Amino acid sequence: MPTIATTTLALGMEEVRKHHILMRGLNAVEALGSVQTICLDKTGTLTQNKMVVTELRSAIGIVCLKNGQFSLLGGDSLDPNEIEELRRLMEVCVLCSESQVNGNGDEVEVNGSSTENALIYLAIAPRSTF
Fold this sequence. Notes:
The protein is an alpha+beta fold. The protein is built from 5 helices and 6 strands, in the order H-H-H-E-E-E-E-H-E-E-H. Helix 1 crosses helix 2 and helix 4 packs antiparallel against helix 5 (about 115-125).
């Protein structure tokens, strides 16, 4: 059985290599076999270790976030504190995060994973521009 598994993984690596993808170990091929979606960011996360939420999808539509301002995709500006669904979404993002928030007012420093930090900054956005 181990020989069959190794051979199958090696054949999978060969197939992946045809698409110019480099893998260092057979276990990576095995892990990729169960993946359905891969999301990549080649700008902020890799160079600055910082992610930013730019868009939310909810029952009210697509909400865009730019420079601390929320707006619907059509361009209508909105206050997320006045919309119950968005306010609750931001509360959940903050309460489920393990990031540490230091400071108050204009100076806020968030320490944690890039994804959780982005969600914390999403909740801070209606109160300040970051």
